[in-house]
Amino acid sequence: MSQTTACSLDCYDACSVEVVDGKLKGSKDIYTQGFLCPHLNHYDNHKRITSPRFEGKEISMDEAMQILEEKCGKLSTPSQLLHYRGQGNFGLMQEVTDHFFANFGATLSDGSLCDGAGEAGIIEGRGHNKLLSPEQIAKSEVVIVWGRNIHTTNSHLLPFLKDKTIIVIDPVKTKMAEEADFFIQIKPKGDLYLALMLSRFAIINDMVDEAFVEEHASEHDDFYELTQTVRIKAILDHIDVSLGDVGKILELVKDRRTVILAGVGIQKYRHGSDVMRAIDGFAALLGLFGKEGCGVNFLGSSKEGIETPFSTKAKTKPVAKGNADFGRFEMAFIQGSNPLNQMPDTNRVKASLEKNPCVVYFGLYENETSEVADLVIPAKSFLEKNDIRSSYGHAGLLDMPKIVDSEIGISEYGLSAHLCNAFDIDLDSELSYLEHFQSFGESRENDVVVAGREELPYSEGFETDEDEFIYLDEYELAVDDGEGLFLLTVKSAKSLNSQFKREEKVYLNSSHGIDEGERVRISSENGELVLVAAVDERLRDDCVLIYSGTKGVNLLTDSRLSYEGKNAAYQENKIRIEKC
Ligand SMILES: Nc1nc2c(c(=O)[nH]1)N[C@H]1C(S)=C(S)[C@@H](COP(=O)(O)OP(=O)(O)OC[C@H]3O[C@@H](n4cnc5c(=O)[nH]c(N)nc54)[C@H](O)[C@@H]3O)O[C@H]1N2
Ligand SMILES: Nc1nc2c(c(=O)[nH]1)N[C@H]1C(S)=C(S)[C@@H](COP(=O)(O)OP(=O)(O)OC[C@H]3O[C@@H](n4cnc5c(=O)[nH]c(N)nc54)[C@H](O)[C@@H]3O)O[C@H]1N2
Ligand code: SF4
Ligand SMILES: [Mo]
Question: Atom of ligand 1 at shortest distance to CA of 149?
Fold first, then answer.
């Protein structure tokens, strides 16, 4: 017998999954195309947390719920409880816990560890973050892959990119870069300048779509002035791009249907929103919005067109996910997240968790955070509970019905129902919430998508205050002459953030005189760690790469958030390396 669900993981692809005799297979719909990635192909190999525990001792789920209830009841005031929720499971029902915590009076978390800076830039320029679908991407002739590693993080998009002219802009020679028609191995953090330079020469070379800008993006003269503040030769030398490279990109995109696929790599910086806006500005000049086979695709807003049924407005100001101070609270409830590895500034996070007298971890796997938690509550996996999901990579709305009965864990709804009951907070039935979410779906021939999304985003223009595209009008970015190497922390094919098989090495090219297998001490102003070296000629001389999810990687990063979007800024810290 075959049943259909969807992968719950935080991933562009949001695959539709057939469960056949207990085995997981990719559905043959247009997005999933019959294959899954290693995470789901080996899903059962990963050891789960099977029992709750309190202060190191195994307990029953009933006892765990009782302790949780008691701890909530004993707080000096409910706002002394911090609810820190990550994206370990992308199901829409995961937010049901926010409903309990907000109504209870707890403090919620906001901001992002992920795409918040880029999204803030998109919203400033375009008004809303609307997703350009894979179907539209397939209609393009030229694709610029800008700070995104498609083969690793978004492999179901590859079939949509067949036979296109591919341009890659990345400090790492990714697999896509190897196969690309043109590759710029840019210096990290150089993208804002490159986008301004492309815009300037697009204007000089008469490539502006006059009809489009007149109607939808009229302030381009001011944007041109901004691009003129950049000293051409000095800046191009600085970011390791030649005037010929700029000319080549413009030549490749001229009069062709062009899509820009921007990834989180461009915006892991404090000025990340400006980078996104400058790239959008370049696209606006070329008139790429609202046209067949054209546009800029970043991580779309997965909730576009879906209203939440939960009441999640808390009375207290939320705390940013990127620099939350757990030590300020009497209790922390951590759900679907591993902040002790994934938040920046691990030493600070560790100290702040140590100060918190009651850390609760609600998740599937043991990790750095579960190790220090006072109360550990196992969750049910996506196969063991009812949910539904949307995606930041395509328009699908995918049901995730319960498929497996299991004694292990509790669902987010189950846990919230217990707490709502204990504290007299209204909660509707699980089915009514699921039906609420389903009501935003629209059936197509072989799948269900979120209803009402524009097939061609921004074809009706931009919903900003001025009803047009707002160009970047100033930026703050000093030329980075600081000493040390750039630290790139990118996604690994083996893990999904810190879930599954985690990487353990530091990758660097041979120019550093460090051999394969040697132990290397890596330090920043923030902290240090020791890892074994892997020599990797895909990297520039000035970069070192440690995959996201590697133990200790965020000892090197700091807690300063992006200027816009309350995002963690993982690539601001220069590092040093030495053999040890
Ligand atoms: N296998 C796998 N898939 C995943 C994930 C995972 O952990 N594993 N995580 C999921 C999540 S949460 C997310 S947010 C997405 C993210 O998916 P992507 O957007 O692809 O994210 P990254 O791998 O972090 O970075 C992408 C690229 O940016 C480049 N880069 C780094 N710094 C710069 C820079 O300054 N300029 C430019 N131009 N490029 C730069 C890196 O070298 C890398 O090739 O992937 C999702 N998919
Ligand atoms: N240095 C550096 N750090 C980074 C990044 C980077 O590029 N560089 N990337 C950042 C990005 S893009 C992101 S999105 C964040 C991700 O960071 P987190 O959101 O912390 O993600 P994970 O590390 O995967 O932790 C997810 C946890 O969710 C739990 N989980 C899985 N399914 C369920 C479920 O159904 N219910 C419950 N209750 N729990 C579940 C698992 O036990 C797992 O430990 O990390 C960020 N950290
Ligand atoms: S992690 Fe991504 S690619 Fe892998 S099965 Fe899930 S949605 Fe598909
Ligand atoms: Mo992410």
Answer: 20
Contact status, residue 415 vs residue 97, Cβ threshold 8 Å: yes
Classify residue 465: in a domain, yes or no.
no
In the 3-class helix/strand/coil scheme, how is 415-435 assigned residue by residue?
HHHHHHHHCCCCCCCHHHHHH
In angstroms, the CA 379 to CA 385 distance is 10
CB of 569 closer than 6 A to ligand 2?
A: no
- Which residues have CB less than 5 Å away from ligand 4 (the ion)? 114
In short, whether 489's Cβ falls inside 6 Å of ligand 2 is yes
Q: Which of 426, 450, 474 is the last residue of a domain?
A: 450
Residue 263 Cβ inside 6 Å of ligand 1? The answer reads yes
Strands in 126-235 per DSSP E: 142-146, 165-169, 182-184
Tokens of 435: 């039906």
Q: What is the CATH number of the domain that holds 267?
A: 3.40.228.10
d(CA 125, CA 214) in angstroms, rounded, equals 16
Report yes or no on whether pTM surpasses 0.90. yes
Cβ–Cβ under 8 Å, residues 562 and 116: yes
pLDDT tens for residues 410-442? 999 999 999 999 999 999 999 999 999 999 999
Cβ of 557 closer than 6 Å to ligand 2, yes or no, is: yes
Give me the mean pLDDT over the 195-214 stretch: 98
In a domain, 377, yes or no: yes
The C-alpha R_g of the chain, in whole angstroms, comes to 24
Examine the domain organization and report whether 191 and 121 are in the same domain: yes
147 Cα: distance to centroid of ligand 4 (angstroms) = 14
Secondary structure string (H, E, C) spanning 538-563: CCCCCEEECCCCCCCHHHCCCCCECC
| Structural domain boundaries enclosing 492 | 485-579
306-319 pLDDT, tens digit each:
999 999 998 999 99
Q: pLDDT tens-digit profile of 360-391? A: 999 999 999 999 999 999 999 999 999 999 99
Enter the tokens of residue 422.
């204990």
At 428, list the tokens. 């509707």
Domain assignment present for residue 472? The answer is no
Number of domains in the chain: 3
pLDDT band at 397 (very low <50, low <70, confident <90, very high): very high
Tens-place pLDDT, residues 316-341: 999 999 999 999 999 999 999 999 99
Whether 265 and 123 share a structural domain: yes
Pairing of the two strands 182-184 and 53-54: unpaired
Structural tokens at position 511: 């120019």
Q: Ligand 2, residue 264: give the atom nearest the CA.
A: 12
Confidence band of 351 (pLDDT split at 50, 70, 90): very high
Mean pLDDT of 189-209: 98
Find the length of the chain: 580
Residue 459 lies in a domain: no
Mean pLDDT of 10-26: 97
- pLDDT beyond 90 at 477: no
